[in-house]
Amino acid sequence: MREDGRLLAIRRADNGTWELPGGILELDETPEAGVAREVLEETGIHVEVDELTGVYKNLTRGIVALVFRCKPSGGTERTSSESTAVSWLTPDEVSERMSEAFAVRLLDALDGNGPHVRSHDGKRLIPAG
Description:
Elements: E1 7-12, E2 18-19, H1 31-43, E3 45-58, E4 63-75, E5 83-89, H2 91-97, H3 100-111, E6 116-120, E7 125-126
Parallel strand pairs: 3-6
Antiparallel strand pairs: 1-2, 1-5, 3-4, 6-7
């Protein structure tokens, strides 16, 4: 998240959807190091990892994602083999461009009340319970 409140997002090369940068951790990698590596690989932006803001489970695919709030610390936006666009979006743009299951991850990082724990089906949130 930039000081002006804009959030870093990518348009994925494989399916064209807007999401936050991320990926799978290497075996010997801490979550924080993995976040920094994935963001740099996908966007060209160096980040300082701040705090865990949410845990999100895709109940359809069995994938658990950890989301960390980060601050940019250098670099220049660029696309990669995994991204066709890199952009700093406003919270409203996040809501417009992303499915609920992905928009909520960025919006949760803004509220300061985390870490949030949520489940979804890949597109929509599923109520707790």
